[in-house]
What we know:
Blueprint: H1 2-13, H2 25-74, E1 82-87, E2 92-101, E3 116-129, E4 132-145, H3 148-152
Antiparallel strand pairs: 1-2, 2-3, 3-4
Amino acid sequence: xxxxxxxxxxxxxxxxxxxxxxxxxxxxxxxxxxxxxxxxxxxxxxxxxxxxxxxxxxxxxxxxxxxxxxxxxxxxxxxxxxxxxxxxxxxxxxxxxxxxxxxxxxxxxxxxxxxxxxxxxxxxxxxxxxxxxxxxxxxxxxxxxxxxxxxxx
Length: 153
């Protein structure tokens, strides 16, 4: 008991201070600032990941639509040069370009007749994503036999 009384007396006179466990106000403010910066970064990463997932889904849909349109064109019995446009749905639109490609070298020989025609087919899919307009394209080549009318001329 005597010690306890002496300790209280020393504290009253200010000769000796007791060390208290805990944090100062500055330490708490710094810790909250670090925590808020960290949480902001994590939230931005999640938002960016969600945005990228949505764009990836849109590109996957667009490529699948392009392949479907490409298959429709590939099964046609005849092929003509030109372009077409249309819609898959309210979001996705398509443009098809068919162009004849010359398979002979630059110096054409009139006696050499090629039995097939070579076509380049390009399907472009366009859609609006947020405020941006995005697009992707699918391209292939197709050979078609020369029609009898063209062989005779």
